[in-house]
Specification:
The structure is a homotrimer of 507-residue chains. With 507 residues, the first copy, chain A, is mainly alpha-helical. Chain A contains 23 helices and eleven strands. Among the domains of chain A are: 202 residues, no CATH class; 84 residues, no CATH class. The termini of chain A are far apart.
């Protein structure tokens, strides 16, 4: 096994040499190359032939131009590395293939021998931590890092996942549902939440270089935010910092968040682009500076993007810090707009599986809307976080404007929670009358209508309200119109079924 | 009250002085600064600390670089001000904070004492009129300026608004609907249409400078097109010219119109981006000049945007005027695509509350499609407007092409009106049989299906047809597919309910 | 007839002369003008007055700056013309109005006398073939070129077209459906598929120059991909290369494909923009080079667009060809994701009307999913095409990554086909019980629900899976959620109708 590659060995060496010549020539920008480690040069020797896209993408990025030693010399606010010091063996080379793909080999079950080097297939937060420890630590405690468990280890959500993505067949005229396949989960829920990558051993793959041995990974490829990596770490920095340019510009653009935060369940991007801020972003951002660190309000950008409000280090033109950088994207949030089934204060812990409501269900609210308060942040903490968010708004808006905005959001949360309650009362009625069966609360027609009330429509209205706009969205697209029509239809179907099937009108 | 700010007075003065130094230093672009009025300098002294975003946004715009005196020297076609003369006290200063926020204090109920200056919170069209009287006058007579009354003072539309956005609760197993809250109206219908801003007095707000007194405004913030302002004027120029850059580039980009003109009711942007013109805009507009006045066909842009057809001053490369600028965005339109409930000729007046159809309802057509002709423009006027629109098309297209296009639109209007009639006939049948109750024609399941026929699907098909494309949209997305399926479902539900409930088949 | 124009003759001549002066002046870029043919100069003389938009658009493009003779001198990989030689009379002039609009007059039924020149209204692939024969030949055999017949000459699809776009009326309380009007077909299905353009003779049109005679064309204007042209040729190059810049940049941007490949039936663009590749495109493509030929992976672009995978000539930075250019956009595809009604191997021929399944229907699969294999490419050919696609992926990704990706796609196809089968079994049940009538399988409520399963939801999931992402789309937006809910609703409606109408439960 693996011998297939040896036959091409000499050709590879020849090509690698040729490429090295190319890459160290002045035309290619040669003067900088001496700072590339010998190992990375070897990687690039072959990979610029076999996977040139990623090599050139890397070359476009800061990693290929900066050594950690240089990075550490920047003033603190401008610094893109958060480590206080960097291991000696890394600090004088640019951050190349080998520097990242060879970290912590003892932890990496996906470490393998590749052309004479010990290489990890997957670079994980644990590896990025070498230079970016603060970001990794913040992220590690967030709901995002724990996104797989938060979904699949919660029996209620797991049932919903199964009801939606499980393969259905007709048997004897009835619909049967199977457990979702791993691959379909990867293409749906776990595409965003992340998959568990395990190493089953080695396997042979055919490549342009011949057959080579590589680790046999489960549920791969995947770049979900809570990916469980072969070194035991959680998360994929590449969810938002796509390989191999790792451009801060990309991470700061809303399209990155818009890989997952989308209608109908979490339409952050959909409502943002219809808002005033989205209008300004779409119309004027070609003149903004997306790569400035720190990010200066008014000078580098003139309207917020996702990153402005939820993550970036912001300063005023005279250098005052308006918001500290965070990679726990919920840490500036006081309320969780996302209804489960009601909007509620943010959970205390990024691990939401520990939550139990008064009915004993692993949900932050009861079906009638009571909070599982001991698992949620208290009012003082909510106030503190709201204040930190308002500080960002106030970089452009008067306090009165900002207060007015959040007053509207508060009302929206209250009213959409009420609308969820109304739908839930109809649902309880239908379960009580035996029109549908509560055992699995997510798999019958009325139940699906009920889910849409809180998962699609109420959430959409809240997102629109939070993002200063999208009034047409909140009115007609996926908002009040749907809430009202769907509620009416639920009522109508209950009546029709009660009449046609003789279910008892026990109200 | 308000004393909270005095404690910080000296710090403010100090900071303001420091900022003035900064702003008049050469690095900041000092040579131009002498033209800033003393009052505006004072504003900026503090606001570049407290709300730097808007100060820097303003600095990016033309207002910060041009005095009215200079603006008046431009050749007429290039001029961005329409006033023949500008008051002496304004003409030699750039258009800064104080110049706009201090106009007409006697009319402004939102005028208040702010750090020693009399300031209006809201700058209104009446204020902008100082330099832009023609635009303000055009706008004042348009449907947009009257958008609040046109919606809420029309009892039919008001009922629809209430049915959609009113909070619903379940009482004794029945759905009850409340009047919509002010805040929900602000986040939905009135987000686009505008709110009525009244001054309830003064109130204390906490700011970074301490507590200050500010006017206590109702329904604020809002930037809807028909906003009723505290000086009695109508409209918000900031709907399309976002503060404080007031960039013509932003106003001319379709994202601005796309804050409100969206699916499912008015999907102008949605169909535009799928059209050939939208394709060219999205693919090539990074090379266009969006800030040129006048706007030259072929040189400054190579495909129309919303502004091209509906608003901008267009010239040919040799300087011939192809279309005069207008801020009455309906003035180039002969037909109103938006079905109420049928598409119909544009109304004569921007105030549509005066319309009465033959059935006595405040609608431009009867339920069977007859026009309330005396309130609509006549054929000669329609012809005139169509001609002015064709002149724009003909800057790129042959007359035959243009005629062919509008021939298709005419057919689309006729057929979608027919489809609305078919749905209305089913609805009348259902009302007659007592399946639903006509008292409120907008709140029951069949009624909602009927509304979607004319408000969502028919409108969408017309918009797609008007915008030279979006064939997949008109076929499947929100068009003929939906029209056909929904009509069939209406029929089906009527039959099912007739059978299950014993409603009399009285046709 | 036509005399109306003579009255303006002298004015036209005067203006044309003036324009010629302008266009040959140094300020306009005069030095290049001698290479414009005399006829094209005459065209431009008038058209820069009457339709300046297209004249300036043309001037922005390569056609206006390059002669075929020069184009032929480029190295082969950089060449944008595929002809080995170009007729002598064309080779030394830039490619202007007359060069294209005067080709093959004997074949063009739309050829007419226009201001003393014999002009074709429509430039067709047969005309473009003069310089681009390879592209035209590839295209001519593709499904796109045959898109009208493939839709309308297939009785099954034609029935679907009629059911969707036919005008409905209520007669005696029943819904009646007419044949769709030509104009509505143009605005829907044939907007993308193309119309048949015939010449009915000449007609008079009013223009700014007075009345002139022009060919009277049917179904015009249209730029659908399979347009049947008055010279007998098929296709419209302008579908993707909009007039008159004919920019390769536009053709390579996904917005061009996104004129037609859209949700809900073929949501290629919709899922692309939510994918990782779409994220990188939207965030970073302002720095890409869209006009480079050949197109270099990693240097000119760092993520694929539609054109990268389906059409463009791709090379690696050292010049190795990764993919040959093709204008048969299906030629790199092994599977047809688009379910008819199941996803299946690509058809052998671009003419799909010849296909017959085992049930004698003109469909590539039976209703139970069996392939009409003799009309579809065999496994060896599938393997070959998959390999060519993988070569593109592997320009950035490891073989294992790429295999993992296509493994997921394969699973998606299998499961969505199963879900289509489940819906079809319910449909067969309903037809059997007489709940709906199979004569027209596309016009009743349950039938429409069934159609959505395979035409909207299954397709959407497959597109999302093929495009490496859009997990939220595949889960909730138009994917598994809808598949599951709609299937459940079909079942529910069958039961309800069985009970209410007494249809026999004959399962």
């Amino acid at each position: 096994m693996g011998g297939g590659s040896s036959g091409r060995g000499s050709a590879v060496v020849w090509l690698a040499s040729a490429l090295l010549l190319l890459f160290t020539s002045p035309a290619y920008g040669g003067p900088e190359k001496p700072r590339m480690s010998a190992q990375t040069r070897a990687c690039i020797g072959c990979h610029s032939i076999y996977t040139p896209g990623i090599v050139y993408d890397w070359r476009s990025g800061r990693h290929s131009r900066t050594t950690p030693e240089e990075a550490l010399k920047s003033p603190v606010l401008q610094r893109r590395v958060s480590a206080k010091s960097i291991p000696e063996d890394l600090s004088r080379y640019v951050v190349g293939c080998y520097e990242c793909h060879s970290r912590n080999p003892e932890k990496h079950k996906d470490n393998f021998d590749h052309m004479g080097f010990r290489i990890n297939v997957i670079v994980t937060p644990e590896d990025c931590k070498t230079c970016h420890p603060v970001e990794v630590k913040e992220y590690a405690g967030s709901k995002k890092a724990l996104a797989i468990g938060n979904l699949l280890d919660n029996p209620v959500y797991h049932t919903l996942v199964d009801s939606v993505t499980g393969l259905k067949r007709i048997k004897d005229g009835e619909i049967t549902s199977e457990k979702p396949s791993e691959k379909t989960l990867q293409e749906t829920c776990l595409g965003c939440h992340g998959t568990k990558i395990e190493v089953r051993g080695l396997k042979k793959v055919s490549t342009e270089m011949g057959e080579i041995m590589v680790p046999d990974l489960t549920n791969w490829p995947n770049q979900g935010v809570g990916r469980q990596n072969p070194d035991g770490s959680l998360g994929a920095c590449t969810s938002c910092h796509p390989r191999h340019g790792f451009s801060i510009e990309v991470a700061r653009k809303p399209y990155t968040c818009a890989q997952c935060h989308l209608e109908p369940d979490t339409p952050a991007w959909n409502v943002y682009k219809e808002s005033k801020h989205g209008n300004i972003y779409l119309s004027a951002s070609s003149k903004w500076r997306f790569d400035a660190v720190p990010w200066t309000v008014g000078k580098d950008f003139t309207a917020p993007t996702c990153a402005v409000c939820h993550s970036s280090l912001l300063v005023s033109p005279e250098g005052r810090v308006i918001a500290q950088r965070t990679h726990d994207f919920g840490s500036r949030l006081w309320v969780r707009l996302f209804g489960l089934i009601y909007s509620h204060p943010q959970p205390r812990s990024g691990d939401t599986t520990i939550i139990k409501n008064k009915d004993g269900l692993p949900l932050p609210t009861t079906f009638t809307g009571e909070y599982a308060s001991e698992y949620l942040i208290d009012e003082a903490e909510q106030e503190e976080r709201l204040k930190s968010m308002k500080a960002i708004c106030n970089a452009c808006h008067s306090s009165d404007w900002t207060n007015g905005h959040f007053g509207k959001l508060e009302n929206t949360i209250r009213e959409t929670n009420e609308m969820t309650l109304a739908a839930t009362e109809l649902m309880l009625q239908a379960w009580q009358r035996g029109i549908e069966d509560r055992t699995n609360p997510f798999d019958e027609p009325l139940e699906k209508m009920w889910i849409k009330q809180w998962l699609f429509y109420s959430n959409s209205i809240r997102y629109a309200s939070a993002m200063t706009g999208a009034p047409d969205y909140a009115a007609f697209k996926l908002g009040w119109w749907e809430l009202a029509e769907n509620l009416q239809r639920m009522k109508d179907m209950i009546e029709l079924k009660s009449r046609c099937t003789g279910a008892s009108p026990d109200r």
